[in-house]
Amino acid sequence: MSRKHHIYLDEREYSRIIQSLISLKNSLIAQGRYTDAVDDVLIKFTKARKKRITVQYI
Predict the structure, then answer these.
(1) Which of 8, 18, 25, 46 has the CB geometry, 3.0–4.6 Å to 38, for a possible disulfide?
(2) pLDDT over threshold 80, residue 52
(3) What distance in Å separates the CA atoms of residue 13 and residue 18, rounded to the nearest whole number?
(4) For the packed helices 36-47 and 11-30, what is the interaxial angle rounded to 10 degrees?
(5) Hey, how many other C-beta atoms are within 10 angstroms of the C-beta on 6?
């Protein structure tokens, strides 16, 4: 059974995650290791539906 997870990120957080995944992929390439798992996460993350929400602080 596949569980779905929802995360809410601002543009800075989204960019930081993409940069981190790319950095991890580059590190794995430098070590001569497979990057399939990181590639899958990058694809899923960039293709994920984006939804604008309003955050209200009380």
Answers:
(1) 25
(2) no
(3) 9
(4) 160
(5) 6
The Cβ-side half-sphere exposure at 57, using a 13 Å CA radius, reads: 0
Rounded-to-integer distance, Cα 18 and Cα 41, Å: 10
Question: Tokens standing for 20?
Answer: 């981190």
Higher pLDDT, 58 or 42: 42
Determine the Cα–Cα distance for residues 30 and 11; give it in Å rounded to an integer.
Answer: 29
Q: Which residue has the higher pLDDT, 7 or 37?
A: 37
Nearest-10 Cα torsion for 53, 18, 4, 34: 170
The token duo for 53 is 């929400």
Regarding pTM above 0.85, the answer is no
